[in-house]
Amino acid sequence: MKLNFIDYETKLKEDFLILLNKEKYKNESLESLFHLYFNKLNKQISQKNYKVFISDELINIQNPNKDILIKIKKDFENGNINLLNKRLSKASIKEDKNDLLLNNWGIYHFHLGKINKNDFTCRTGLLLFVKIIDNNVYFLDLKEHGNFSSIDFIKIMHNNWEREIDTYRILDFVDIQPKLNEKEVFEFWKLGSNVILTFIDKNNNEVAYMPIGGGINVTKSSNIATIKWIKFINTLPNIDKKLNSKCFLIFDSTNKRFHIQDLNGNNLYNLDFDSL
Q1: Does residue 83 sit in helix, strand or coil?
Q2: Which residues of 17-37 are buried (b: 16+ CB within 10 A; e: fewer)?
Q3: In terms of pTM, does the model score above 0.90?
Q4: Looking at the predicted structure, is the pLDDT value of residue 122 above 90?
Q5: What are phi and psi for residue 265, nearest 5 degrees?
Q6: In the 8-state DSSP scheme, what is residue 108?
Q7: Which of 20, 69, 113, 149 is the most buried (most CB within 10 A)?
Q8: pLDDT digits (tens, 9 = 90+) for 226-273
């Protein structure tokens, strides 16, 4: 892309390299750095207070982990995000590791073990799976490791909070084939392929959904990151037309904003990362 006034690569690449803190990425393109940063950011819980909803399926089971679930619920409600992030997988801080469940369905999984002071929670066989949409958190189910593509998650989301995912529902379909099981779903994910799910809901209706987390591309990274990159690149030329002198694009990681600055460091335009 050629712009007359905005140098959008030089300082922005420096900012992303500092954020990623990896010398090995120095020869990566700006687009690649953008995706790596998104991947790392997306795997962490955003700092805010949340409203928590619990599925009927989770409420109705006899659960020996009730006290831990109550604690996790309170941590979400009180904004104790540092404690919640410690319950994630150790891969959650690795920008080059894709979480296929998160990228496809937007579902996080939390360990239920004791929190270590300076490290992640002890790994547990049983995991809590949750869907986060804006300021709302939906506790879906407890499942053992290895159930990362369980169709039950989508069924539970549909049966409890159908309106929250209706954007991804396919209303007009005729006998979608094949009918995939969860092992087949995961095999498609490993190939970088998106899948459409069909299942019978609590009202005995067959329903179909596209990936409720946006899906993945051939590199197994998030389609949402790709959409953000395209919107970002398409926004810059319109701003460039309004300028008449040299400017730089920088990234403010604290506020997750891109700033277009003149040579004196004055902010002329801001672009919010989350709103892209």
Answers
A1: helix
A2: bebbeeeebeebebeebbbbb
A3: yes
A4: no
A5: 85, 15
A6: E
A7: 149
A8: 999 999 999 999 999 999 999 999 999 888 999 999 999 999 999 999
CA distances, 95 to each of 13, 36, 45 (Å)? 16, 5, 14
Contact between 235 and 226 under an 8 Å Cβ cutoff? The reply is no
CB atoms < 10 A from the CB of 4, how many? 10
* Cβ–Cβ < 8 Å for 199, 151: yes
Q: Return the ∠ at Cα 223 (arms to 92 and 123), rounded to 5°.
A: 20
Domain boundaries, given as residue ranges, for the chain:
6-41+222-271, 43-209
Amino acid at 98: N
**Do 129 and 143 contact (CB within 8 A), yes or no?**
yes
CA distances for 189 relative to 7, 45, 46, 66, 105, angstroms: 37, 23, 25, 32, 11
> Using one digit for the tens of pLDDT, what is the confidence trace for 149-176?
999 999 999 999 999 999 999 998 768 8
Query: How far is Cα 251 from Cα 259, in angstroms, rounded to an integer?
Result: 6
Structure tokens at 247: 């400017």
